[in-house]
Amino acid sequence: GFRRDLSAQDRRFDELQVFDQSANTVVRGEAELTFRIDPALTARVVVNATDFQSESDQQTERRQQFWGAGLAYDVTPSTQFDVFVARQDIEREDITGLRETDGLRASARLTRALPNGEVAVNFITQPTLNGRESMLQVSRDQALLRGGQLSYGLGVSRSEDVGTEPLFELAYVQPLRRGRFDIDFNQEARSAEGTDDAVVLTRLSLG
């Protein structure tokens, strides 16, 4: 099979609004080709590119792309293993000059289906302009009574500038007679888009 995705985001702020906001444009594209080798093994080739442009005083432009191949294998009817390896290139250019890096991007995921959900182990490592970032996480998705859904995970992130940080996520959804109630808390360690800074992002939403 063949899949392609293209998205663009354009954000602009009035100069009378918060002074530290700036207009930026993000364009993303991805193409994926998959083919089944046998009933239990599927291979894929992926090409991905992202372009970030900011109209701030720094006039930042950040380009990232990776291309690679992966395999998805059904170890048993209830256990799946997925691995992906790619080359990743990153460039960042502003009024101070050009910075660039490249290296190996790799990820692996082991998933086991359970009677009321699934449990998964995820690992990813990739280069950034601040050095290599890696993350390991164990997560659990669980179906509850009356249509509820609970997901939670615990992990650890390692980067050269931030160091080692614990990560936690929790999501709970419960259908109600009129609408639904949900809680979503998650943490993510990554390089801030359009900058060289590695940060731990924490999000919480209630509804």
Would you give an account of this structure?
It is a single chain. The protein has strands spanning 2-11, 24-38, 41-54, 61-76, 79-94, 97-114, 117-128, 131-143, 149-159, 163-175, 180-191, 198-206. By secondary structure, the chain is mostly beta strands. A twelve-stranded antiparallel β-sheet has the order 1-2-3-4-5-6-7-8-9-10-11-12, with no helix packed on it. A hairpin with a 4-residue loop joins strand 10 (163-175) and strand 11. It is globular. The two termini are 38 Å apart. 9% of the residues are buried. Residues 12-21 have low confidence and may be disordered.
What's the SSE blueprint?
Layout: E1 2-11, E2 24-38, E3 41-54, E4 61-76, E5 79-94, E6 97-114, E7 117-128, E8 131-143, E9 149-159, E10 163-175, E11 180-191, E12 198-206
Antiparallel strand pairs: 1-2, 2-3, 3-4, 4-5, 5-6, 6-7, 7-8, 8-9, 9-10, 10-11, 11-12
